[in-house]
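TASK: fixed-backbone design
INPUT:
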């Protein structure tokens, strides 16, 4: 009887050990199964075709990085009609782009930089608390370095033609130093010394993959967003005359839009009326 009891206990112990070994041996396979079963859900939320259309100065938005996509989405939402509730940006672009575009072309600067003064000043000739002024928001010293007269009698930062020439020269010099138009744009915002320091510190030369201060980190995203709402206004809620002023005649497939909206941080709004 005792021998039979021992035999039964041994059998149960062996069964428990076998079950435990089975659980540990199949844990990785179970995780793999979960990943496979969740993969279709991930792909449903991915709208890469739309992000393929986003670029600045022929430098495409890098794909496959959720952080980059979230920042881009947040910036696009911040520039939508729902947020801005105005079409003044489109009206300003219509007024000033014919002056800006030929100057940029003359100096070999990509046409997309015409959106920079929209981001900097809303194409209004004001002065910031830090002393940056004019359509391109030049600091006095930088303005003088690139040929503008800034003194008690005259401030050419408020002259659209002359300030655009100075901006084109400055941007061309930044591109010559950094070899990238997105980095040139970032340097325009943070200063060439500041950007040079961050590139060296991070050993990274891709703007989108760098860790920068909040304003500079969002700067190129703002430029891309500004380009989007001017060229493709109806996508972002603009109607009426604003949807026709400078819009491109491009047909988009339904499945490429709207863009992904979840898991995004709130981007700072750059234009107030």
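OUTPUT:
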């Amino acid at each position: 009887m005792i021998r039979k009891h021992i035999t039964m206990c041994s059998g149960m112990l062996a069964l428990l050990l076998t079950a435990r070994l089975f659980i540990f041996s199949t844990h990785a396979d179970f995780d793999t199964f979960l990943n496979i079963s969740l993969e279709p859900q991930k792909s449903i939320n991915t709208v890469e075709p739309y992000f393929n259309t986003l670029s600045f100065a022929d430098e495409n938005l890098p794909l496959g990085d959720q952080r980059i996509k979230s920042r881009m989405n947040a910036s696009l939402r911040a520039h939508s009609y729902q947020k801005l509730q105005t079409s003044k940006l489109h009206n300003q672009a219509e007024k000033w782009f014919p002056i800006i575009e030929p100057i940029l072309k003359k100096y070999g600067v990509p046409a997309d930089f015409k959106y920079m003064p929209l981001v900097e000043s809303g194409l209004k000739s004001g002065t910031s608390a830090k002393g940056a002024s004019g359509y391109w928001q030049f600091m006095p010293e930088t303005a003088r370095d690139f040929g503008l007269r800034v003194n008690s009698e005259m401030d050419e930062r408020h002259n659209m033609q002359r300030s655009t020439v100075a901006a084109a020269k400055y941007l061309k010099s930044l591109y010559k130093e950094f070899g990238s138009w997105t980095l040139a744009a970032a340097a325009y915002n943070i200063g060439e010394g500041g950007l040079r320091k961050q590139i060296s510190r991070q050993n990274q030369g891709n703007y989108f993959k760098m860790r920068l201060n909040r304003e500079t980190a969002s700067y190129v995203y703002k430029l891309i967003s500004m380009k989007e709402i001017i060229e493709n206004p109806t996508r972002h809620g603009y109607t009426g005359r604003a949807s026709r002023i400078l819009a491109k005649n491009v047909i988009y497939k339904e499945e490429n839009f709207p863009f992904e909206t979840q898991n995004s941080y709130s981007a700072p709004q750059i234009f107030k009326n």
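COMMENT: The chain has a mean pLDDT of 81.
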